[in-house]
Structure prediction request, 411 residues.
Amino acid sequence: MQLLITNIKQLLQVREPNVNKVSGKEMADLPLLNNAWLMAEHGIIKDFGTMDTCPNLPDAQIIDATGKTVLPSWCDSHTHIVYAGNRVQEFVDRINGLSYEEIANRGGGILNSAARLNETSEDEIYLQSAQRLEEVMQQGTGAVEIKSGYGLTVEGELKMLRVIRRLRENYPIAIKATFLGAHAFPKEYKENHSGYIDLIINEMLPAIASEGLADYIDAFLETGYFSVEETERIMEAGKRYRLSAKIHVNQFTAIDGIAACVCHNALSVDHLEIVTDGDIEALRGSETMPVALPTCSFFLSIPYTPARKMIEAGLPLALATDFNPGTTPSGNMNLVVATACIKMKMTPEEAINAATINGAYAMGISETHGSITRGKAANFIITKPLTSYYQLPYAFGSNLIDTVIVNGKPI
Ligand code: NIG
Ligand code: FE
Prediction:
């Protein structure tokens, strides 16, 4: 029941309970204890301190972390872990010169994954998705948001959300579910956008709400996908079911979508590869968390979110994987943190804040996750021996994780 970690070289992200996110200059500060201990009981962080105050707990399970670093588990606030099959052929098509847009225009992309999803049984989708979830847990993810959006039919969307519910029932990490019926227009609605949005609002949403299957609502606000006005209809409908919005926006083009999301009190706006001064102004002083997905930029060879400009403007920033079959077939938050440092010039402190406390905020769980705080879930990563935590992004291809603890138990 009790777990005591001793001789921790560096205990990172130690915070008081009142911090739910960090913004601007605050992001440069990663509070830590050197030569520390940490105690968990009943799955909750009970206490911590420096080794001169280490308690003697004869009944506790003890882990000696000499030379090792302990940090809160990653909070991955944006994924599409539930899908069927993969899109390796499109990957090779892109290597051979086709763009993501060209592939989508000939019926590939999201519609390709939707066809696969709808022809695959719920049990089979569960098995494929559980395997991915287990992989990211081993990579240190201790909380994850998962979206629907490859059904695009009432049955398909419900199937995806039921798989997410089953994952939540069977795995110990925190899982939040987001309804993304507005991911793309199915072929039969290509010329009838309002018909598909009516289907989302009048059929999908009530069915999802009656089973309590979603925590959040999402839409792909982008040129060629959902317009600002169409996304506003979706956000308003979500509000009627108490679903806050987390919106895909500014991935390829900036069309004033961010301001609309802020007006609708979106919890997060995600992607942001293209960001204008007006977008930054819209976010300033709001409660909406901007979320960058650097391994998506890496995989598609598109611009990276301008993190420096946003942080220097005083904004917070979160980092997530976007794990999905088309634009980011990887759920590795360690790689996300490293890529943010290497390509977006975030400091290690900023990147770790963005992947823990700010990630927790972007999925509505910063009261219970995202920092080493008394009373929060005992979800943390014990690294291999490190010279300092700078090694985490520096040695970007190495697995530096020794042990992952979820709810006070090694997994
Ligand atoms: O977040 N941009 C929209 N949706 C996903 C990718 C969808 C896909 O290609 O399957 C994303 O990148
Ligand atoms: Fe996404």
Observations:
- The chain is about 35% helix and 20% strand.
- The CA atoms of residues 239 and 245 lie 8 Å apart.
- The chain has a mean pLDDT of 97.
- The longest helix spans residues 193-210.
